[in-house]
Amino acid sequence: MTEYRDDELQKLERALTEAYRRQPDPVPGAGLAQQVMRDIRQGASDSGRWISAVAVDQLVWRTATMAAAVVLVLSVFTVGVVRSMTGERAGLLAEEFESAPLLGDE
Question: Residue 36: how many CB atoms within 10 A of its CB?
């Protein structure tokens, strides 16, 4: 992340304030209402793009979650099939691990 010094931030703040103050004041009339409505429509279309980006992100995460679940189920199924083909009993996977002492137990 970029670190800024106080004098750089103050320059930036002054430049932005000056640019804001230099904007022309809106002239009341028929054109003003059309301009405001155009700005509102453009803002709405920008948020529409944002919403579609969020929807794509959600779709990607949901797809990844489902893929992980399918891989897990297929892995468990494959282990079960391999065990039945080799003649091993279908016990719990946890039974195969030796019990180890917990921290502090001897």
Answer: 11
Provide CB contacts within 8 A for 83, sequence distance 6+.
Answer: 89, 90
Residue-wise pLDDT for 21-55, tens only, equals 888 776 677 777 788 888 888 776 665 566 677 78
Length of the chain: 106
In the numeric block, which tokens belong to residue 21? Answer: 């103050």
Counting beta carbons within 10 angstroms of the beta carbon of residue 26, is it exposed (0 to 12), middle (13 to 18) or buried (19 or more)?
Answer: exposed
79 Cβ neighbours under 8 A, 6+ residues apart: 93
Taking the model in full, what pTM does it have?
0.38
Residue 76, token pair as written in the block? 């468990």
